[in-house]
Specification:
6 strands, 4-stranded mixed β-sheet, two-stranded antiparallel sheet, 6 helices, alpha+beta, globular, CBS-domain
Length: 146
């Protein structure tokens, strides 16, 4: 069976986004309405500036007692997020997530068009298993090479 690409695996085909000046409150409301765990922060020219996730809301807003209605997305987003092409295999994307410690990857075409966000929830158990095996192999190689 051929492994799926990240673009084939995403459930939500439209881009959920907001401007850097939007409030964190707006971001949370949009994420709730769209039932998604992240939102892309895109400037007026359509260029991705960052990503704001559920974890960001908890660790950078709630845990620091910031006011979500006055805190902007730009203040707490993850800037210049790692991204993948639509042709990236799911196990490769999951490996990136395992190694770098995050759960969402924007999918961006070579033309620069933003196609969506791959979430760890979009991966099948088999694909996650493949990525874990590859991560373990990489660790063994790194240990062997010193």
């Amino acid at each position: 069976m051929t492994e799926r690409t990240v673009f084939q695996s995403i459930a939500q085909r439209h881009v959920v986004s907001l401007s850097p000046q939007a409030s964190v409150w707006d971001a949370a409301c949009i994420m709730t309405k769209e039932n998604c765990g992240s939102i892309l922060v895109i400037d007026g020219t359509g260029v991705i500036q960052g990503i704001l996730t559920e974890r960001d809301l908890m660790t950078r807003v709630v845990a620091k007692a910031l006011d979500p209605k006055t805190t902007t997305a730009a203040e707490v987003m993850t800037r210049n997020p790692q991204n993948v092409s639509p042709e990236t295999r799911v196990a490769e994307a999951v490996l990136i997530m395992i190694e770098r410690g995050f759960r969402h990857l924007p999918i961006i075409a070579s033309s620069g068009k933003i196609l969506g966000v791959f979430s760890i929830r979009d991966a099948l158990p088999r694909e996650i298993g493949n990525a874990k095996s590859l991560a373990e192999f990489n660790d063994q190689v790194n240990d062997a090479l010193g």
